[in-house]
Structure formats: structure tokens, C-alpha cells
Amino acid sequence: MIRKASQLIPPVALVFVIACFISTISWVDANPCSAASSNAKAPIAGHSSAIDTTEAHIAQLQVAMMITKDQEALWNNLVQVMRENAQEMDTIAKDRSNGAKKMNAVERLNLHAQIIETHFHQLQKFIPPFDALYASMSDEQKKRTDILFQKGMTKKYRNK
Question: Considering the domain boundaries, does residue 6 fall inside one?
């Protein structure tokens, strides 16, 4: 039986990687052609940082996952990791923006490798507190969380 790559990646990992990717695309130009062109887009004025994006995700996830008072300590452990990860990504973004115009192709590739490695380590930090929180969830919470991490934040689970 041949499995697709997306079937092999645990849904939690997939959502986390996507969230990290989305939070960084504003400051990482993944298109080498536009990066090399003189018409490369400037970052959108007032675009939120990884910290701002993470804070918005935290608020949405807390509601969507129906976090209870009994789960607050576990939730706070997870939120702390999310905030630390966002701070780390903002630091990389700041370093990148300070030297972006001077980077050659090899330096850009090294930056992308650094970002991927950082995401990997952040995911490793994220999974243990998420696992502890998930283990404490009711069947209904687990069902909602599974759908959320499988399909992302849909209107169905926002602000409920």
C-alpha cells in the first residue's frame, strides 16, 4: 500500500508547521526569483509579528479547544512554549531584516535552513505539553481538537 506523505505526518505536527510557516512568510521571501529581482515586494506596513500572530492563535485555540478551568495549568504550559517559539522566530526575523539586502544566495539558503531547523526544534518543544493537555481532554474536546488539527481553524470552531 502506497501512502501519501501527508498521511505519514501526524496532524499536530502538520498544523504546527503550517502555523509556523504562515507566521514567517511575511518576512521570509521563499521565491528566489523575486528575492533576486529589484522589484521585490517590501513587507506590508503594520504586518503583525510572530508574537502578535501567536497571541491571536492562542485566543482562538483556547475557545475552539474548549479549555476548562481544570486544564488551565496544562494550557498555560503549552501557551508558554508557543510564546517562546514566537519570540525566537521574531528574533530570527529581526536578524534577517537587518542583513537581508546584503545576503547572497548561499546566505539566503542558510537562513532558510536555520528557519527549518528552528521550526523542527520548536515542534519538539511543543509536542510534550500538547500531549499532556490532549491526554486531559474529554472525548468531545479531543474530537474537536482532532478536527481542528486536521483541517485548521474553520468557521465552525471559531468563537464557540
Answer: no
Structural domain tally of the chain?
A: 1
> Residue 12 domain-assigned?
no
Distant-in-sequence contacts of 124-131, Cβ < 8 A, 24+ apart? 125/81, 125/84, 125/85, 126/16, 126/78, 126/81, 126/82, 126/85, 127/12, 127/13, 129/74, 129/77, 129/78, 129/80, 129/81, 130/12, 130/78
Specify if 39 maps to a domain: no
pTM exceeds 0.90: no
The distance of Cα 29 from the centroid of its chain, to the nearest Å, equals 17
Tens-digit pLDDT profile for residues 4-42: 544 445 555 545 544 554 444 333 443 333 333 333 333
In this structure, which long-range contacts are made by residues 6-14, counting pairs with CB atoms below 8 Å and at least 24 apart in sequence?
Answer: 11/146, 11/149, 11/150, 12/127, 12/130, 12/149, 13/123, 13/127, 14/149
16 membership: H or E segment, kind and range: helix 11-24
